[in-house]
Amino acid sequence: MQHNRNLAADRRKGTILDKFVIHGGQRLNGSVSISGSKNGALPVLFSTLLCDGPVQLSNVPIHLRDIEFSLKILEALGVESEVKGDGSVRLQVIDPTTTRADYDLVSKMRASICCLGPLLARRGEAVVSLPGGCSIGDRPIELHTHGMEALGADVRIENGYVVARAERLKGATIYLSGPMGSTVLGTQNVMMAAVGAEGVTVIEGAACEPEVQGTASFLRALGVEIEGDGTPVIRIEGRGRLDGDGRLDGACFEIPPDRIETGTYLLAGQIDAAINPGNSGGPVIVNKQIVGVVMQANSGRRSENLGYFVPPSIIRHVLDDRIDGSHDGFPDLGFRTQTLDSPSAKLAYGLRKDQSGVLVIKVFHGSPAQGLLEENDVILKIDHYDIADDGSIKLSENILTDYKHAIDIHHIGESVLITYARNGEVSSSTILAERALNSYSLVAGEQFDKIPEYYIYGGVLFVPLNMNLLKRWGKANPPIPGSADTCDPKRRSSR
Fold this sequence. Notes:
By secondary structure, the protein is of the alpha+beta class.
């Protein structure tokens, strides 16, 4: 606890710590309280712009800078706030006319773009500086602006500001999944804007994260009709003009706990011992029962310093595989898929609303699946496992995993039953599980069970490119003398 007191003291002094020093060796036990989710709190805070009545929030992580910046932005937008030490915050809109969120505040925080949707819905205009404050890198806001335009807003980028105007928003069907997948902030922003639209808004390709569900729960507390949150399709019943009959009077709401903080504590209690050289491969014992084998992931010369354990199902598969004296590995049927989250896309591939699965995007030549599956088939089931649109299967009531697990539990030479839909017609085929062919990829996978191939010509040693070499000599490592990196004139001139 001494470290916590020092940290709190340093925060009060305005000091920023650049490292934590942790002295381990103690058995971990006891209980902790989880803070409210920052990423869950931010869109809820900005949602108060939709309201005329007071909003009372609890479990807000008020000590975080992003929360402080958000409250300052809200103050500039006419929202009065009262913050208490117990994590409760009371907010009340006192000036619903201001529509401009200036650069000085917005540039400090990525999530400030969340004021775009509620300003547009409640005040008919939003002038929001392009957001900043993201150390992860460039993350465009095209999906945010696309959603506003789909609702009927005129959106422009002018002098570093997003300028959006709409006399009246109208519900629409909006597809929000981009090249990098769904957008959490974009989904939340469009949800807030859709509250002030006339009619129903359907968001397809919506983010499914718990933070999206938290935003939906708060909007429901305000009286908004929302369904489908937590799935790729969210339906919002718009209330129309929020300064008229659609007026929102406020609500009380508790910010959900932070899942990242929760996961951090869970990792701390995952394994008692550090995975040092010599420990890896030892048993994991719970209540005098061996429940797995200790494992530590590493990449090249770097270890992740996180302890995991290999579960019994994988161990059993490897042991059974070795009965005949050789290790054949896990099978690959020779096809690749993508998720099928959009209802419109499912309809285009002939699926009913009650059907779900993954879309086949590639069938490799010479694979077990060739001649049985085709591109644009939708795989509905692997054996008895139903596949969800996000590619998951249910192992038990509370456990989901990727559908590929249903293939991995098979051994080389066993049959796998695939149920699929082709142009709306459901069929089944039995595919013989085989080892993955090198032709499935331009680069061979990692190999540990056979001698590497090589060729010597003119005193130069050539080896086929494989994942072993890429992980050993990747971009994070110094270039090999004589390699393309050292010969590249652009790279050479930059040194």
